Q: What sequence folds into this?
C-alpha cells in the first residue's frame, strides 16, 4: 500500500474516531479539530454518509440561525467479527461499528493442543458468528488478535510462546481464504488497549497504558492519541521486563521476567507446587487434590477466602506487576493506567497490591497524574477491540 | 494557541524535517510523502522560500522532461542559541538551521551554587553568544534545556532535583525579557534525542530511544518519527525506574532508582566512600587524597587504567543501566538505542557492560532489531538539539 493512500485512510479513521468519541459532531467541528480544509472534510464525510458509515442523527441551529447536520456513527451499518486467541481460550464476538456486542462464542483451549486444532476452533467460532441471524450478510471484516509478535502487513502470527508449537501462522491468508472478508491481525494487548480507548476508561485519554494480565502479560500503549507500535509492531512486552535478574528461567530464554512471577501461568505453577508441599489445604480441596489442575483463578479465589498461601502468591505477583508498571509509567508518563485481563476480575487482593506497589515505585510527579483504573470490559475486551480495529481499517479504505 | 494553528505549524515543521533528512527534495516529493494537497504544499513551500528558510539548491529534470526545483534547508538563514543546563555545567552553542555549531561557550556549575548565580551564568553565556560576530543580528530563537519536569506552554522549569533549590524557574519569561527572542524550553534528555534524530544515529529512524547518562539519567524517545512527550511532557524518567526495590533511598523519595546506582552522582558517591575505605589507591592519587573531589569521570578513567575498585563500580552501574534499557526496549520496541551523556565517552568499560546487560535482559525478537550505538555528538549534543528545536518552532510559526 502506498504511503499516500495510507494517509488518506488515516483521515477517514480520524473522522470516525472523533465522531465516536464525541457521540455527535458537525462538519465544522471536525474540520476545526483536525485543522483540515472544510472542503476536504466535507468530501470525506459525504463519502462516509453515502457508504452509510456515518448517519445524520439530528440538527443544531447555530447562533447565526444556520442549521447544521449532526453526524454520528451508524452502528448498524457495520458489523465485524473479533476473534481473540489466548493461551486458555478462543473468544469470538460479533460487534457493530459502535462496539455493541451482538453475539458471543467461546471455546476453552487446553494447554498442549496442536496448532491445527486451535485454528479449527477459531474458524468454527468465526463461522458460527458469521452464520448468526444477527450477522445477516452485513459482516465487513474479521479481526484476529493473538499474543506475541506478528508480521505487520501480512497478518502472520510469528510466535505465541505460551501456545506450544505456535509458529509462523498465516492467519490473514487462512481466514481470508475461508471467509472472503478482509482480515486484520494484531497483538491481543494492543487490541485490549484499543477496546479501552473506544469503549472503556481510555475514552478521551491521549496517553495511557493498558495492562493485559492473563496467562501471559502484555501492555497496550496509546501515546498522543495513537497506538504505539514500535519497530515491526513489537511494542508492549512488559511480561518480559526483568523484575529479578537472578530469578527463574523464562520461556523466552531470559531470567526473572515478570511472567515468571506474576502471569496466570506462573501463579498456577506456584500453586501446584504449594498443593504438593501441603501448603494450602483449601487449594487442594478446590482442585480435588489434582495439583496440576489448579488455575490462577483458583488461587485468586482462595486468596479472597483468606488462604494464607494463596494471599502470599498473589501478593508477590502484585508487587512485581506494580513495579513493572511503575517503571513503564516513569518512561511513558501516562495519564491513566488500566488494569485488565483475566486475573484482575478475580478479587481485589491482586489489584490492591498492584496499586500499592505502583504507588511506592512510581516517581513523584508521575504517579500523581497517572490514575489507575480496573477495566470494566470483562473477558471479551480484546475480541471487541480487534473487531473495532478491523472495521476501522476496512472503512478507512472503502 | 489554537489547535488549528498548532497543526498548521506542524505541517511546516514536517516539511522542514523531511527536507533536512533527504538533503534535497522537490515539491512533488513532499506532497507525496505527506499525502498533502499539492496546492497546500506549494503554498507552505512558497512561504518558506520567501522567508529564506528553504532555498532552491538545484533542478532535476523529470522523465517527462519537466524541470523541477530541488529545495534544501538554508542553514545560513536561521541561527539560534541553545543553552543546556546540567547539574555540573552550562553549555551554550550558536547553531545554524542545518545544525552547524558556529560558537560555543561553557561554564562549570559547582554543586550547591544558588539558583540566581546559575541563572546569571546561563544569561552570560547567551549574551556572549548573541554578541558574537557570527551571530550578527540573525539569531531568531533561544532554546533552553533543563533536566527534569517542565511546564509545557509556559516554559517553566518545575524542578531539577540534582540542582539544589531549583524550583519553578520561569525560564521563558526571564530569557524573553532579557533577550527579546522567542524562547523554547524542554527537558535535556529529549533535546539530546532531538540532536540524535537530526544530526546523529537517529537520522531516518522512526522508533528509537536515546539514553542521556550523566550526573542524572534521562531517556529521550522517538516513536513513529515524533518525540514521545507523555502527559504534561513528563516522559523519559528512566533514572527513576526501580532496579532494586530494597536499594538506597533516592533524591526523588523512592528507593533503589537507577540513579542511586548508575548516575554520575552515584558513581562519585561510591568512589568517595571507596577512597575513604582505602579501596582505591589510584583514585586517591588522582584526587590528591580529597575524596569529596572525586568525579564519575575519574572513576571511568581509573577503570580504563585497570583499577579493580573502579571497574567494579562502573560494571555495577553498567549492569543496572543495561537492565533498565532492556526493560524500556521490551516495552517500546525501538530499532535503535543510542548511548549518550557525559559518562559514555569515558572509556569502554561502561558501554561494554551496558551492551552485555542489555543483550542479556532484552527479550529475543526485540534485541535483534534494537541496534545499540554510542553517540558521537559529544558534550554539546543537548545544547545543539534544543537550538534546533527552538528554530523549528519559530520557523513553523513565522
A:
Amino acid at each position: 500500500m502506498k504511503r499516500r493512500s495510507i494517509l488518506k485512510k488515516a483521515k477517514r479513521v480520524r473522522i470516525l474516531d472523533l465522531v465516536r468519541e464525541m457521540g455527535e459532531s458537525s462538519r465544522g467541528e471536525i474540520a476545526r479539530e483536525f485543522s483540515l480544509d472544510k472542503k476536504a472534510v466535507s468530501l470525506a464525510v459525504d463519502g462516509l454518509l453515502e457508504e452509510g458509515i456515518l448517519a445524520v442523527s439530528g440538527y443544531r441551529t447555530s447562533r447565526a440561525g444556520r442549521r447544521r447536520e449532526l453526524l454520528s456513527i451508524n452502528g448498524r451499518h457495520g458489523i465485524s467479527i473479533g476473534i481473540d486467541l489466548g493461551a486458555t481460550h478462543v473468544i469470538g464476538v460479533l460487534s457493530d461499528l459502535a462496539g455493541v456486542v451482538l453475539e458471543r462464542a467461546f471455546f476453552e483451549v487446553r494447554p498442549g493442543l496442536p496448532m491445527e486444532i486451535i485454528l479449527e476452533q477459531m474458524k468454527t467460532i468465526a463461522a458460527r458468528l458469521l452464520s448468526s441471524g444477527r450477522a445477516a450478510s452485513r459482516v465487513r471484516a474479521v479481526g484476529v488478535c493473538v499474543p506475541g509478535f506478528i508480521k505487520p502487513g501480512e497478518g502472520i502470527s510469528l510466535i505465541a510462546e505460551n501456545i506450544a508449537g505456535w509458529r509462523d501462522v498465516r492467519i490473514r491468508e487462512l481466514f481470508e481464504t475461508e471467509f472472503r472478508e478482509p482480515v486484520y491481525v494484531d497483538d491481543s494487548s494492543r487490541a485490549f488497549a484499543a477496546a479501552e480507548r473506544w469503549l472503556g476508561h481510555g475514552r478521551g485519554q491521549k496517553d495511557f497504558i493498558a495492562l493485559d494480565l492473563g496467562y501471559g502479560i502484555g501492555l497496550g500503549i496509546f501515546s498522543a492519541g495513537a497506538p504505539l507500535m514500535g519497530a515491526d509492531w513489537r511494542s508492549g512486552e512488559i511480561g518480559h521486563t526483568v523484575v529479578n535478574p537472578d530469578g527463574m528461567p523464562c520461556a523466552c530464554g531470559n531470567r526473572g521476567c515478570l511472567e515468571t512471577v506474576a502471569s496466570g501461568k506462573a501463579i498456577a505453577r506456584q500453586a501446584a507446587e504449594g498443593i504438593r508441599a501441603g501448603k494450602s489445604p483449601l487449594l487442594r480441596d478446590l482442585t480435588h487434590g489434582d495439583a496440576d489442575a489448579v488455575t490462577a483463578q483458583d488461587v485468586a479465589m482462595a486468596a479472597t477466602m483468606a488462604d494464607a498461601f494463596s494471599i502470599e502468591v498473589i501478593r508477590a505477583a502484585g508487587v512485581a506487576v506494580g513495579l513493572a508498571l511503575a517503571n513503564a509509567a516513569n518512561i511513558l508518563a501516562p495519564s491513566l493506567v488500566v488494569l485488565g485481563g483475566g486475573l484482575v476480575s478475580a478479587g481485589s487482593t491482586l489489584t490492591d497490591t498492584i496499586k500499592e506497589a505502583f504507588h511506592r515505585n512510581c516517581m513523584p510527579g508521575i504517579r500523581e497524574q497517572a490514575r489507575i483504573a480496573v477495566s470494566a470490559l470483562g473477558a471479551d475486551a480484546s475480541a471487541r477491540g480487534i473487531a473495532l480495529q478491523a472495521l476501522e481499517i476496512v472503512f478507512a479504505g472503502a
Remarks:
- The first strand of chain A starts at residue 54 and ends at 61.
- The CA atoms of residues 42 and 197 of chain A lie 26 Å apart.
- The domain at 3-73 of chain A is CATH 1.10.10.10 (Arc Repressor Mutant, subunit A).
